[in-house]
Amino acid sequence: METLRQILSPDFLLRNSIYTSVLIGFACPLVGVFLVMRRLVFMGVALPQISSTGVAIALSLPLWFGFNLADHGSRSAHALAFAGSITFSLASILTLAFLERRGRGQPEGRLGTAYVVAAALGILLLAKNPYGEIGWLDMLKGEVITISNFDLVLTAATLALVLAVLGMFQKELILVSFDRDMALILRKNVVFWDAVLYILIGLTVSMAVLSVGPLISFGFLLIPALIAHLFARNMRQFATIASLIGGATAFLGFYIAYNWDVPVGPTDVVLLGVLYAIAWIVARIVHGGLRHSHTA
pTM for this structure? Predict the structure, then answer.
């Protein structure tokens, strides 16, 4: 109880870290449900890693041109990192989605290649970057230690924008994701709504990677949605259950990590994995019981 009191205290030293983790936990599953619904799970694996590579390249550019990031303050570095993250996220998701729609090649092969190359390139770039050594390599490993007020506000504002657009246009986004043929029959601009959805996913992934790293981003992007998919009967339940699971797990994971003095990112992901395993077993039992009662 004492640890819980410390975490909930407004004077808690790592309060921005837990606020950001919970925000990411609530928001990421809301776009993750669309990836699961469209059967783009592998894209959810690759995108956070590609986004982090965008961060690495953006932070390396000043060094290549003889500039020192330390002379321009942390906000300049953060803005540069965000630009790299969003550029690579949007470019990759639009390109991969376009290739998948055209049906060329093997999508799993493209996504797997993009993931492993992005991971290796990001680590190599940051390993040779003095700025990366003081924080970005920790971020890649899932360390959520110090998040400034500016970072927290930027994260909250970006995610609020994403959630607002999702709320206003949920019918159109669900229709083009769930029943594309019906959307065409109703003369919806499918390409436009696809682009809107991909931009929202790119923004969410970029902000999550920049705030908490690719490990937590991937975990919260997909696993809560996969758990919710086992029990949800409609889209509203699907999104609500996934978001609640993500937010609650982010808080519980931070509590466990702080109490046991272990990294937050791996703790959150392992906890999500345990919940997924339990949920899968429960779903099998429940669905098996229902089938048995119907045949009896």
Answer: 0.84
